[in-house]
Amino acid sequence: MATLYTQQESNISKTWFFLIGFFGLVIGVGWVFAQVNNNPSMLIIAVVVALVMNLGAFWFSDSIVLSMVHAKRVEKREEATELWNLVENLCITSGLPMPKIYIVEDASPNAFATGRDPQHAAIAVHTGLLRLLNRNELEGVIAHELSHIGNRDTLISTIAVVLAGLIAILSDWMLRSMFWGGRRRSNDNEGGSPVMLILGIAVALLAPIFATMMKLAISRKREFLADASGALLTRYPEGLASALEKISGMHAESTTANSATATLYFANPFEGTGQFVAKLFATHPPTEERIAALRGMPAPVKQ
């Protein structure tokens, strides 16, 4: 029977496959855009814009996200002693540097990690999570978020979010240029390739959907991997499984999260369904599957 341990290598390779697919989709949209407009430089522009946006996300994504959710930084241990001690102890165990700690005033029980690397990382915890969970459960959630930092998930997730946004912008640009360009060609009686126009419209309409599905697929895979890594770190999978049970039973939607940041969270900050189509657009794997996988792991002795 497959466990989270056996899924780790597969998850990593699939995540990189999706990211390479993302870049390919950006280049493909740019190529179609260049062909429809009969302007090869458009492809170069698309690639350059993708690189610039990724560099921007690399340097500033953490401060942007923390500002969006109104996170307040914990400057001293005395401000949140138990949380500070948990993070510090897990960092010592894992060998990771201490991340910045933030608290978000939000009644929904949730948390997320952000930052481009372990040296520039931050963990944000909702007040609802601190009120709901006991120490073992909170430790499991913090270990899960530290695993995202250690596995570089925060960087990969940010790049995926930026690329999905870029594809949406390119597609919108393409539709607008075809509409206005088409009118000019009609007025000038220059005509155009009907095949390329149809292909361009199809790409402009479908590419954002595929990009969103790929972004969410990356997020779901990283959650499974972080569950496995977090359970290894605490050596107590039941703590994380119990936390997931409690959080899923709350049915409390976040007042600070939005659709752009939803993939960063420990649990889906919004209500969802379990149907097939809904799963394709889900930000997280089903909670039941995460709990079952955690409880299917060998039970290491907690030190």
Written overview of the protein:
Helices cover 67% and strands 6% of the residues. It is mainly α. The chain is elongated and about 65 Å long.
Global mean pLDDT: 80
Helix content: 55-70%
Tell me the β content: 5-15%
Number of helices: 10
Q: Distance N terminus to C terminus?
A: 26 Å
Main beta-sheet strand count, sense and barrel state: 4 strands, mixed
> Shape from CA axes?
elongated
E-strand count:
4
**Structural class by SSE content:** mainly alpha
The strand line-up of the biggest sheet is: 1-2-4-3
Uncertain runs with pLDDT below 50, 5 residues or more?
none
Radius of gyration: 22 Å
What is the H/E string?
HHEHEEEHHHHHHH
Features:
303 residues; 10 helices; mainly alpha; single chain; elongated
SSE blueprint:
Blueprint: H1 4-36, H2 41-68, E1 72-73, H3 81-94, E2 100-104, E3 111-115, E4 121-126, H4 127-132, H5 135-150, H6 153-188, H7 194-234, H8 237-250, H9 276-280, H10 287-295
